[in-house]
Amino acid sequence: MLTSCEEVIDVDLTTGSKRLVVDASINWVKGTPGNEQTIKLTTTTGYYDAEIPVVSGATVTVADSAGTLYEFTEVPGTGQYVCQYFVPQINEGYILTIIYNGQTYTGSETLYDVPDITSIAQSEDGGFEGDETEIRFFFNDNVAEENYYLSRFDAEFLAIPEYDVNEDRFTNGNEMFDFVSDEDIEPQDIIDIKLYGISKQYYNYMVKLLEVAGGGGGGPFSTPPATVRGNVVNQTDEANYPLGYFRLSRVSAVSYEVQPTE
Predict the structure, then answer these.
(1) Do strands 20-29 and 243-257 pair parallel, antiparallel, or not at all (unpaired)?
(2) What is the chain's pLDDT, residue by residue, as a tens digit (262 residues)?
(3) Which of 242, 244, 228 is CA-nearest to residue 105?
(4) In the chain, how many H helices and how many E strands?
(5) Is the distance from CB of 45 to CB of 13 less than 8 angstroms?
(6) CA proximity to 174, closest of 223, 151, 140
(7) d(CA 207, CA 202)
(8) Which residues, 6 or more positions from 41, have their beta carbon under 8 angstroms from its beta carbon?
(9) Residue 22 in contact with residue 44, Cβ under 8 Å?
(10) Taking the chain, what is the end-to-end CA distance rounded to the nearest angstrom?
């Protein structure tokens, strides 16, 4: 007979200084006015801590190039700051300002358009071994622009949303696609698909972020190449830099119900 035992080993990890984490994604979904937007503020915490500390008491505003100021009001105790009257404009530049603990953080970005999702195709030969269900969506790239895209897939068979980024360097003006495949996809599963128009800077940021998250093939115990820093800068103390990103996007969103195979 064979016996075995398990021993829990707690690794003594050094916790760095707390930093502000900015989740400032302004998403204008097609078919909606885009007036209600939310910015979430938290701080970094220890590796073993179960809860992520939220940030209260900050002043959060977004201004456009004409000087129109949009104030984001805190929902008490949530770290969420909400604006009900935001006016999104394609190709408009915006500046985010956060004042917290006597320090001022700013970030700037432009709101980019996105094409419609034109069609969705399902196949049963996806994955490396050709044994997974694959859901592929298509869209037409604008030939007159240099475009960058973020894709997001949400479904019950995914533990967390799945992201991907694309550029049109070699497909400018052509039909483009992205896809999700998984062996656990079942008929009648609902897959929510979102396509975002993003900036080149955010595309580069997401490439690095996805690589650190495991997409670069280094395995779960590989060393991240560096801390992935976004476009929000601490104007008061540069050394106390925040994490996260200020992004604005037009969004094309569809839901797809997986069909049974014949």
Answers:
(1) parallel
(2) 556 566 666 555 555 678 999 999 999 999 999 999 999 999 998 766 678 899 999 999 999 999 999 999 999 999 999 999 999 999 999 999 999 999 999 999 999 999 999 999 999 998 888 889 999 999 999 999 999 999 999 999 999 999 999 999 999 999 999 999 999 999 999 999 999 999 999 999 999 999 887 654 444 444 445 578 999 999 999 999 999 999 999 999 999 999 998 7
(3) 242
(4) 1, 15
(5) no
(6) 140
(7) 9
(8) 20, 21, 22, 23, 54, 55, 58, 60, 79, 81, 98, 100
(9) no
(10) 48
Rounded to whole angstroms, the Cα distance separating 57 from 244 reads 19
Identity at 11, one-letter amino acid code: V
Within 13 A of 150's CA, how many CA atoms are on the CB side?
A: 27
DSSP readout, 118-173? Answer: EEEEEEEEESTTS-EEEEEEEEEPPTTS--EEEEEEE-TT-SS-EEEEEE-TTTTT
Token match 């955010």: residue?
Answer: 202
Six-digit token string for 48: 């073993």
What does the DSSP assignment read for 54-106?
A: B--S-EEEEEETT--EEEEEEETTTTEEEES-----TT-EEEEEEEETTEEEE
Spell 37-63 as b/e; 16+ CB within 10 A means b.
Answer: bbbbbbbbeeeeeeeeebbeebebbbe
Q: How far is CA 179 from CA 75, 76, 136, 194, in A?
A: 36, 39, 4, 11
Report the chain's C-alpha Rg in angstroms.
21
The whole-model pTM stands at 0.88
